[in-house]
Inverse folding.
């Protein structure tokens, strides 16, 4: 195994997650080292909504019903979070607490209440995020119909 490889888990593989799964699988095909990025888990309570589920399964990517089930037996350098926005803060916290960096995609404004129920809750989560030696990356969607 390549010692510089990055292990990635995908939390949410339907909806927005379909885009992340597709981009990650395509990027792996373009890499000179196909093991540079290893998908170590796909997490979704309804994985059948993933358009590339068969490809994930054929690559031996283990499926999990919840992030708790994943972290009970696995770890990831990076957790890519593609769950409903109101769950992002909880999922980012879970990833950071378990030693993973966290990436989130969606129509997120980190200074607004969209990541949490209120501005006060957002401030509390970000105070909490700062104590971890890991990073959080949020990508704002550029699509006008999302």
């Amino acid at each position: 195994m390549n010692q510089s490889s990055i292990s990635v888990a995908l939390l949410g593989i339907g909806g927005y997650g379909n885009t992340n799964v597709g981009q990650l699988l395509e990027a792996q095909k373009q890499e000179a080292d196909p093991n540079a990025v290893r998908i170590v888990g796909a997490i979704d309570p309804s994985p059948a909504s993933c358009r590339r589920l068969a490809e994930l399964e054929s690559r031996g990517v283990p499926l999990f019903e919840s992030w708790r089930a994943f972290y009970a037996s696995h770890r990831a350098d990076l957790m890519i979070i593609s769950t409903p926005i109101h769950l992002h803060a909880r999922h980012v916290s879970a990833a950071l607490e378990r030693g993973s960096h966290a990436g989130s995609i969606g129509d997120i404004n980190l200074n607004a209440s969209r990541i949490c129920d209120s501005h006060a809750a957002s401030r509390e989560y970000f105070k909490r995020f700062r104590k971890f030696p890991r990073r959080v990356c949020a990508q704002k969607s550029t699509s006008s119909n999302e």
Helices lie at 16-30, 53-58, 67-73, 85-97, 119-129. The CA atoms of residues 37 and 114 lie 30 Å apart.
